[in-house]
Design a protein that fits this description.
InterPro entries: HIPP09-like, HMA_dom, HMA_dom_sf
Order of helices and strands: HEHEEHEHH
GO molecular function, one term: metal ion binding
Oligomer: single chain
Protein name: Heavy metal-associated domain
Pfam families: HMA (PF00403)
Distance between the termini: 158 Å
């Protein structure tokens, strides 16, 4: 305490501990031992990672139902290095992509699900045959057509284009005529339908009136005329018989 020193024992980082003390106590602190490394010392070599890129592994696993496939997928996704996993219930295949080891993946599946998994060997890409490359390179260039043949081809193409234009014009004229005929026929059909509907409505109204007359006959009102008041005692102008 009198020397203003603190001794710390344990596995700690001196620099981090000194910075933490300065931050908490707001006081200056200095490391006495061990001293920081000198600037001239060589920098240690960085060890490069030996992990390869992502690979795709196909496994053949016996799955009974969709629940088994879903459970197997969840278990495989929990493994370190696995990125995606897809299960096919119909074929019994499981496709896994990631940076994991194929043999370790098989052991992991057996330990987690107690199911035997077998790696499906992937076919190797077929090498390109050199003979085909040579044949493609040795193909002769096509001969250029002569000017006379070019003229004949151009004339033939012009005639064909003229024939096509004439056929298009005839088709458009025929289409317009047929459309006009169809429109006239549609208008006549609509008028006939309207007339039929009106006729049916008239018949229905007549039938309704007949039924009303049958079930609800007309009521005749009888007016009651009061008797004459000539001989009434209440009438002061009435006649009196003595």
């Amino acid at each position: 305490m009198a020397t203003n020193q603190i001794t710390v024992k344990g596995i700690v980082d001196p620099q981090a501990l000194c910075a933490r003390i300065q931050k908490k106590t707001k006081r200056r602190a200095k490391i006495l031992s061990p001293l920081p490394a000198a600037e001239g010392e060589p920098i240690p070599q960085v060890v490069t990672s030996q992990v390869s890129g992502p690979i795709t592994v196909e496994l053949n696993v016996n799955m009974h139902c969709e629940a088994c496939a879903l459970q197997l997928k969840k278990k495989i996704l929990k493994m370190r290095g696995v990125q995606t996993a897809e299960t096919e219930l119909s074929t019994g295949k499981v496709t896994v992509t990631g940076t994991m080891d194929a043999d370790r993946l098989v052991d992991y599946v057996y330990r987690r699900t107690k199911k035997q998994a077998r790696i499906v060997p992937q076919p190797e890409p077929e090498p390109v045959k050199e003979e085909e490359k040579k044949e493609e390179g040795e193909k002769p260039a096509e001969e250029a057509p002569k000017p006379e043949e070019k003229k004949e081809e151009e004339n033939g193409e012009k005639k064909e284009e003229e024939k096509k234009e004439e056929e298009k014009k005839e088709d458009t004229n025929n289409g317009e005529n047929s459309s006009n005929e169809e429109k006239g026929g549609e208008n006549n059909k609509e008028e006939e339908q309207v007339k039929e509907l009106e006729y049916h409505e008239v018949l229905q109204n007549e039938e309704i009136m007949k039924k009303m007359m049958y079930y609800y006959p007309p009521l005749y009102v009888i007016e009651r005329v009061p008797p004459p008041q000539l001989f009434s005692d209440e009438n002061p102008n009435a006649c009196c018989i003595s």
